[in-house]
Structures are given as structure tokens and as C-alpha cells.
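notes to self, project folder thing:

trying the whole complex as one job this time. last attempt i did each chain seperately and stitching them together was a nightmare. two parts in total, labels are on each line so i dont mix them up again. if this works i'll redo the older ones the same way
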Amino acid sequence: MTPKKGNARRIGIDDNVNTDYIISGRYKFQIEDHKELAKHIFEDVSPNFYGKVKSGDFLVAGENFGCGSSREQAPVALMSAGISAVVAKSFARIFYRNSFNIGLCLLECDTDGIKDGNRLEIDLKKGYIKNLSRGKTIPIRPMPAVMSKLLADGGVIKHFKKHKGFKIK
Amino acid sequence: MGKTIAEKILSNHAGRSLSAGDIAICKVDFCFSQDGTSGMVIDSFRGLGTKRIHKGIKFCMVIDHSSPSPNIGVSKIHKKMRGFAADANCQIFDIGCGVCHQIVPEAGFAMPGGLILGADSHTCTYGALNAFASGVGSTDVAITLTAGRNWFRVPETVKVIFKGRIPKGVFAKDIILALAGKVGANGCTYKAIEFTGPVIKRLSIDGRFTIANMAVEMGAKCGLMEFDAKTAAWFKRIGKRKVRGVSADKNAKYAKVIEFDVSKLSPKIAKPHTVDNVCDIGRVEGLKIDEAFLGTCTNGRLEDLAIAARILKGRHIARSVKFIVAPASKSIYLEASRKGIIRTFVEAGAVVVVPGCGPCVGTHNGVPANGEVVISTANRNFKGRMGNPDAFIYLGSPATVAASALKGKVADPRRYLR
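result (full assembly):
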């Protein structure tokens, strides 16, 4: 995997960002079009956030990102909005699994030094994030092998079809 | 080395001995999805090219989150679900049946020692019946329906021992809010919780559901309880006899043991906008409320409705308050009706709505106005949760909600329980 460059996007809330905040129940229950859902991400906590996101941006947050509801629409809407990876100190487990299932990359590291708009370079192979704006290198917590496999295959559905079942060992 | 309940259930379903940290493929007994998640289950199922649901697995869909449909978008999703149910020959619980987390146990799908995946985060509720039940996304349900199994990482377990005697006016909801306040929203991330101790033994199954339901609010993968005589009696009532549970070994290894004495607890309130923002009711008593809501998968069961009715009987709610009641299922609605509880609610000025999740998830049936304050028996108080990001949601027990509806302000239920 070649290193990816993009800008950091912060939503203004650091810890415990729940999936209701990512995409409100108002929308997830009635909109099935992923592009349409994407327009409403973080609407209740950071209005116009969608307008600020550019394709390839990295979403950056603190602890327990994605807690609460199991809605898969949350990672789907983020991915459809153009977010190429979410970088946080830690993730809630249902969101974590859902994201890799659809092929959205999640990375765990110390995010304190990353500010909104910072230019980042993510190198999964070497296991670090370079904050190009501040000249700092941040180590990424190693990704579990299962998750790397799902990600490499483009999500669990493609993985399952490719291997005609699970091939996680 | 001994095993926790989670390790035993997952071992039984993998066909080999597993310990915390292991990754294994396990047979899943039952799956379900609701109307907020079924649309994507159906899309993923078709995306996988699956022709029929794996014959080793039971599956149903429940229409509860927006029931009956409040708009065209939802109607389209409901129609899609009904069409899929007919095509795939699977059971669907349509509008009016109630909240999935009450229907699934009532229908006998949540068996002790069973392994369950539900496309709803509060699937952990069935841990009260000794089932390893975990919330997942829609794609994980679709995969499970295709393969009859899924992959699991065996979680470490946190053992919570509730000790002491439950004081008057304090209920299962107060106990679990107190715990959530203590350990925090990520205090048990990826862990299984075993809820044990004399307090759990003394609680009814309804009370145990309330506690297991909120395991996910601390980040847990499931919240398990031991199988006992009360569990057996509960299963007997739904026509299941000779049911056996799975117990933890005495020498099982726990990531952490939390001892929690409930003897001196006061009724608790979770303040906006996080579930772990918990305080004693005295800290917010007197705060004016605009809406009260009694219901949900946490607190819409018969015992919850009964305690609220006991407080409301012969009284009328404050004029300034909208009081909404949603029984958790049709059978609870009927039973509450037979016992005169529904009549008490209506005479007290409450509005009884269709069994379902609507108000809690903000789809319909009581969306608050800007600046309004709601007291609710739900499990989440996130900003915007009830459909308006400019409203303020406080969580409490059914007794607290009923007392507050009477007073028009957050009120201590101990003053109303004689």
C-alpha cells in the first residue's frame, strides 16, 4: 500500500462521538441513497460539516469514536462523503467492525497533536502518520490481522465472495 | 484455567475450547434486524448473491423504529422488508407488534447459552436470559444469514457484583445508570460483562433486562447473567421447558472485578447529552420539564408500566407536560390494559402510543420543540436523539418519569411511593 496524503478534519467534539451524531436517526430511517445520506453527516453537532469535506480527507477524533447505535449508515455516510480514513485514539466495537466490513480504514493513534486542516501522510506499511504541517511522526497502533485482511479485500462482502467464505487465519 | 460465560458460549459454538483474545468462527443460532437496519441487510444479502437463508439459522425482521410509517421514505423501506420476508420466507413482526428487544425474547428466540447477532446495538438485552447476544451492523447479519456463522474475537470479561439491598424508590434503571456513571461510556469497550451478586438474584427478569440492555452504553459487547430459577420460570411461561443455562467456572479469569453496593443509592438521572453524565436526582430536582416519555427496550415492560401507574393512580399530570407512553410489545399492552394500567395512564392525562421505538429515536410520536426538556426512561440522551438537536434529554427510572410528569418538574419518586 502506498502512503496516502490528505487533510485532517475535526468536528469539534473529541471523545465519545456517537453514531447518532455521525448520521441522525431522522435521516437513516428514511434515506437509502448513500450519497444523499452523506450530505447530513454531523448535522446536529457541526452544521455544514459536509460542505467542508473534500474527497480523501481524514476524519480525526479522540476516544471511543462511533459509540452508541449499530447503524452501518454511519461508516457508509462517512465513506460516501469522501472520508478516506478515520483516525482516533480508540473506537467503539460495533462501529469498528462495521467500518472494516464496508472497507473503511480506521486507525488508532495519539491524535492530540493533529489540528483541523493539518496535512497528513498515512503510511500503513511502515505504521505511522506524518503530520506534514507540524513536522511530527505519530506511530499507529498495529491493526489486527483480521481487519487488515478485510481491508485489503475491500470489505467483508468482497472478502467472503473472493474466498467463498471466511479466510481470516 | 476456568472459563467465563462468554468463553463457554463461544467455545460451544465454535466446537473447540476458546479463551479471551482468540479469534474463531462460530455457529450463530439467531439473527434479526429492525426497520432502521433491514434495508441494508437486504442489500448486502443480495450483494452477496445469496439465494436463501442458511438453514441452520433462525431469522426475523421487526418493524419497530418507525411504526406505523410516518412518511414516504419509511413506507418504502417497510414495503421492501415485507417483500423480502415473502421472498425469503422469513418471519416479520409488523407494525404494532412492538420493540424488537421485547419481541425476540417473547417469541423464544433468545435462548440461554445461545449465540445471537442482531442489527441493533441493544441486542445485548438478552444477556439477561443468559444468551451471548451482541449488536452488529447490517452487513454482519447478511453474512451470518449466508454462512450460518460469523467470526468472533472472544472478549475478556468484566465481572460486576451488585451487593446490598435495593433502597425504596430505587430501581434497576438507577442501578445501571449509577454503574454507567462510574465506569463511563467506554469503560467496558470490547468486554463482555457478567452482572452478578445478590441484587441481580433479587431482581425480576424485567429488571434484569433493563440492566443488560444498557451494557452497550459502557461499550460492552454483551452483558451476561447467570441462569437461575427465575430465568427457568420465565421460560416456562413462554412455553419453553427443560431449558438450561451456562455458568462461569469458579476459577474463570476476569479482566476486572467491580463490586458495587447499592444500599445507599438514590434515584439517578443521566443529564444531557451523554449516558455517563450521571448524578443523584437531588442535583436536578425541580428542573422544569416539557415532556415525559415512558417506554423503550430499557423500560417499557409490564413492571415498568405498573410502577408508573402506581404513582399516577387517581392523579393528573401537570398541565404543561406532554406525557407519552409506549408499551414495549403488544402482549405487554394487552396485559397492562387487562390490569387497568392503561386506563390509569389515560385518566392521568398520558397519551398511549403504538408499541415501538418512535419517540426514543426521534422518528415520530413526540419530537420535542427547541429548548424543551424531556425526562425519559430510554437508554440514550444524545443531542438530537429524540429528533431535535436543540432539546435536552434526561434519563431516569419509570418511577422518576411518572413522578416528574405529575409535578411538571424533575421529581424524586420516593415522595410518591407510599
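what i see at first glance: The CA atoms of residues 153 and 159 of chain A lie 5 Å apart.
need to look closer tmrw
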